[in-house]
User: Which sequence fits this backbone?
């Protein structure tokens, strides 16, 4: 017994957790990776320079997925963050990141750079 | 200076609250302190590595690397915390009676300690990598205010650690007998919150396209951006705009941990029974 007891947690997870999560993930991924979506994706470019977004006001149509391509032209890293959009993403210095927005409802969505919140401010207007 | 203080405080607090809860939840487990210390050290090391490769991670998988990486480590943390809660439920009786160093239990305890250390390491690594990146940014800008910003960062670090310590002391003040149920519930909800965050990451990576719109918006009542909102987000997984998938992940995770911990809690007589669950 003493030989097996330590491994009980592993057996436990093998039996219950791992399959559970795998199934959930697989189901989610399976449905998520539906084809034909990438075909007409809209791409909007934003750059960060001197800790400011350019453009800092963006207009987007409602109901379409949009790819934001954020280029950080500064040497220092920035964190693109938006509670309204549900995003938080680190962008290293002199590199870029892609933010995949789901179809949005009309409204104003504020985003900002967490590391330079005083200057790095912007918003998306969806209509 | 204030900006640096706030950012570092925020990140340290997020990791620190998790450590505080985990520490309280494992009170009286032999060797806990060294496991947590190792976890913190590994987490700091991991932070530096993750920060170094931030651009590389981000670019991986067609720009989905960061989300997938965070989702993966969060799910791993959820497993570790779940394991710990269940192990504690199995051994709570011995713990409260201080009979913890009996043969096989030390071995099992060592496994639980691994889970503990790993969960701490992940919490530190996730928040720490952001601090490291922020700090490198400060150093890179090379402005004369750098020392001021570094001072702010250190103050933030100390303040974050202090608040986490207060939480730990508060939890540790609960009588041992009741504390295990309190911390067990807290760790369970914390883990459920992490699972929900991981779902959000998968959704942001574009891997989940169902049930991905927010079900409700309570940000007018308690914003996740506010300090109470942040603390509750870490401790019990509060979300002001949860998506369907996040809610499902939260409920499934919390439900499974509660269920397993409850069904495997030590009944008075079943202690000496070997588990038949190994063959499957």
Assistant:
């Amino acid at each position: 017994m003493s030989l097996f007891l330590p491994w009980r947690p592993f057996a436990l997870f093998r039996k219950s957790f791992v399959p559970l999560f795998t199934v959930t993930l697989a189901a989610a991924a399976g449905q998520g990776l539906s084809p034909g979506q990438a075909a007409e994706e809209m791409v909007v470019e934003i750059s960060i320079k001197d800790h400011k977004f350019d453009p800092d006001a963006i207009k987007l149509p409602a109901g379409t997925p949009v790819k934001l391509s954020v280029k950080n032209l500064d040497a220092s890293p920035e964190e693109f963050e938006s509670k309204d959009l549900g995003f938080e993403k680190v962008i290293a210095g002199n590199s870029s990141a892609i933010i995949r927005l789901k179809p949005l409802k009309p409204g104003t969505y504020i985003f900002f750079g967490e590391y330079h919140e005083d200057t790095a401010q912007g918003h998306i207007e969806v209509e | 200076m204030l900006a640096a203080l706030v950012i570092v405080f925020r990140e340290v607090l997020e990791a620190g609250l998790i450590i505080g809860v985990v520490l309280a939840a494992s009170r009286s487990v032999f060797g806990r302190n060294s496991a947590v210390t190792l976890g913190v050290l590994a987490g700091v090391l991991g932070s530096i590595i993750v920060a170094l490769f931030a651009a590389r991670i981000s670019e991986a998988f067609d720009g989905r690397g960061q989300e997938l990486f965070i989702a993966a480590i969060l799910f791993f943390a959820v497993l570790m915390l779940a394991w710990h809660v269940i192990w504690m439920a199995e051994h709570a009786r011995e713990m409260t009676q201080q009979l913890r160093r009996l043969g096989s239990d030390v071995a099992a305890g060592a496994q639980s300690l691994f889970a503990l250390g790993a969960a701490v390491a992940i919490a530190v690594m996730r928040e720490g990598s952001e601090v490291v990146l922020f700090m490198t940014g400060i150093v890179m800008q090379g402005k004369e205010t750098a020392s001021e910003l570094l001072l702010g960062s250190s103050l933030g670090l100390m303040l974050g650690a202090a608040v986490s310590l207060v939480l730990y002391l508060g939890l540790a003040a609960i009588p041992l007998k009741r504390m295990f149920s309190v911390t067990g519930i807290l760790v369970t909800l914390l883990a459920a919150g992490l699972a929900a965050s991981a779902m959000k990451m998968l959704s942001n990576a574009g891997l989940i396209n169902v049930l991905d719109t927010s079900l409700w918006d309570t940000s007018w009542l308690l914003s996740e951006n506010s300090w109470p909102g942040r603390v509750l987000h870490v401790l019990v997984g509060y979300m002001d705009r949860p998506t369907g998938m996040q809610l499902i992940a939260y409920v499934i995770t919390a439900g499974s941990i509660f269920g397993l911990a409850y069904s495997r809690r030590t009944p008075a007589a079943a202690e000496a029974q070997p588990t038949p669950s190994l063959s499957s």
